[in-house]
Amino acid sequence: MGNARRELLGAGRVVLDIEDRPGPPPLRFETTGDGDLTVLRQGDHAVLLGALTGDGCCHDLHLHRLDSYRSPLPPIESALMRSEVDWVHQYARWLEESGLDPLYDGRWKLSPRTAFEPAVWTVDLVRDWPGGLLELYCGGGWHGILPLRRLSAPDAGRVKAYRKHVRDGTLAPSCCGGCRATTAG
């Protein structure tokens, strides 16, 4: 990943300062000149195709996801979830090694996300596959969850394992969108 330095911001917070990373990041959005067509790319592969519709400031993004997305984070084994790992630093390490991430030159703050608006898990969770619709309200944007891979069935083994980790209080933050990367000032 070019050069990445870590700056500690206290417990559970770190800044990745990324330098000398040429070109666009491997995971990136691209749009047409008028902004009506969007593609999410990961390396050379299209991951999501989208088209804006609507007038004025309120638009809808009609999207179609493809099966080419690969997470920049590896699957997390149960033993690691139960360990005392410092998740923010672990994610920083994985992102530094990934080659599939959305990071580019700049400062990126990684910190735990401990709460979500309730609507994120209901109306703002895009469950349909492969299509979907994001209602981009005037001025407010969209703040939901858009899975980039097909969701597992509710009775799948991995879902049962995640539920057990939730009950035990050992679920890794990545399994619930728990760490976020934002540009740091």
Describe the structure.
About 15% of the residues lie in helices and about 30% in strands. By secondary structure, it is α+β, with helices and mostly antiparallel strands. The strands form 2 sheets. The chain has a 5-stranded antiparallel sheet with strand order 3-4-5-6-8, with no helix packed on it. It has a 4-stranded antiparallel sheet with strand order 1-2-7-9, with helices on one face.
Task: Characterize this entry briefly.
Helix content is 15%, strand content 31%.
What is the fold's blueprint, element by element?
Blueprint: E1 3-8, E2 14-19, E3 27-31, E4 37-42, E5 45-53, E6 59-65, H1 78-81, H2 87-98, E7 106-112, E8 131-136, H3 157-168, E9 179-183
Antiparallel strand pairs: 1-2, 2-7, 3-4, 4-5, 5-6, 6-8, 7-9
Features:
185 residues; alpha+beta; 5-stranded antiparallel beta sheet; 4-stranded antiparallel beta sheet; 15% helix; globular
Strand content: 25-35%
Order of helices and strands: EEEEEEHHEEHE
Cα-to-Cα separation, first versus last residue:
20 Å
Low-confidence parts lasting 5 or more residues at pLDDT below 50?
175-179
**Class inferred from helices and paired strands:** alpha+beta
What's the mean pLDDT score? 84
> Rg to the nearest angstrom?
18 Å
Spatial ordering of strands, largest sheet: 3-4-5-6-8
Question: Looking at the structure, what is the overall shape?
Answer: globular
Major sheet: 5 strands, antiparallel
Give the strand tally: 9
Number of helices: 3
Q: Helix proportion of residues, in percent?
A: 10-25%
Oligomerization: single chain
